[in-house]
């Protein structure tokens, strides 16, 4: 039986956050740390940080020392969320994985092509700001720019963001604005071993290049 993370459960929102964070740590052996959350003031959603212009409402670190706070211990995770059960679930990149973050349309095109090519795939997240986030082995942030150049694109021409050491991503079921982060491809026993960025970069760059060209032609 496959182990899946983030499947819908009949739990309160705060319980879902805690259970997901514990499962990431215990089952996937990913480091986890708590972030900000959304306060609902009569339908007006605001980030707990209190900044009206918050660029990532409900989904950013609340401490500057968050890299040292992140833990892969389920016991420590439960202790942290007991202090603030509404906290979002954040995952540091550059440790167990890096991620490649692309526009949703390009990501869906690339994902379909990868499946046709039977490429190895790791988990893939979908975010409310219409992005797809592909999990790959650590080290992608250092090698992707050169890989993209070899394929004929200047990295600055593609809407492709690689997150590695010193960065993080919000994980399901974290709420961001009016939506929630979700799994497009859930973590399972079958994708425990992540692909190298080099295995996925060709379809990702091709799809991002097509989208960039389409935007220029509008």
From TrEMBL:
> Highest taxon of the source?
Bacteria
All copies of the DNA primase/polymerase bifunctional N-terminal domain together span 21-201
Q: Which InterPro entries match?
A: DNA_primase/pol_bifunc_N
This one is known as: Bifunctional DNA primase/polymerase
